[in-house]
Design brief:
With about 180 residues, the protein is of the alpha+beta class. It is built from 1 helix and 8 strands; from the N terminus they run αββββββββ. The longest helix is centred in the N-terminal third of the chain and has 20 residues. The chain is globular. The chain starts with a helix and ends with a strand.
């Protein structure tokens, strides 16, 4: 009679070799007709957005954040108009410095305290905001920013008023 220990060891080795051989088997490459699965594109989350006088142009609030010295507004202009969009004299004009390509006329409205906040300006009268803004090509987005005086701490929401667009009301202020 054969030794049962040697038989069990030999059987175990045979099973292990079979398993290893099965694991190294390569699958055929997928054909060109099979497309890999892709995740859907993430949709940006805006605090608020609006469309106004210019068809295909959307203005969206990306962030409204309270800092130590100012309230910072981040906007995104989205151009789906079919044409290039020029800022020229549409969103504010720094007459003293001849800059017509800025967003210095974007205001914040505190309805609770009935107060209008204007863009902060430096000692030369230039806005602390996006300036020298290039044209925005069709299908493109452009990030913009502006800084405002801080509203009282109890103001949690404020309206954003952009020329040629309906106001975006009750935009949440973050910290």
């Amino acid at each position: 009679m054969k030794n049962p220990i040697h038989f069990s060891a030999a059987l175990g080795m045979l099973i292990a070799i079979s398993l290893l051989a099965g694991c190294s088997k390569q699958e055929p490459a997928p054909t060109a007709a099979v497309a890999p699965a892709t995740a859907p594109a993430a949709t940006p989350k805006w605090l608020a957005s609006t469309q106004g006088d210019y068809p295909g142009i959307t203005m969206a609030v990306q962030e409204l954040k309270r800092g130590p010295y100012a309230l910072k507004l981040k906007l995104v202009l989205i151009n789906e108009s079919g044409d290039s969009f020029s800022f020229s004299d549409k969103f504010g004009r720094d007459i003293a410095n001849g800059n017509v390509s800025e967003i210095g006329a974007v205001h914040l409205i505190d309805m609770t305290n009935k107060k209008k906040y204007f863009v902060v300006r430096d000692h030369d009268g230039r806005c602390l905001c996006s300036r020298d803004i290039p044209d925005v090509d069709n299908g493109s987005k452009l990030s913009l920013w502006a800084e405002y005086p801080l509203p009282p701490d109890d103001v949690q929401k404020i309206s954003v008023e952009v020329l040629h667009f309906p106001p975006m009301e009750d935009v949440l202020i973050s910290r």
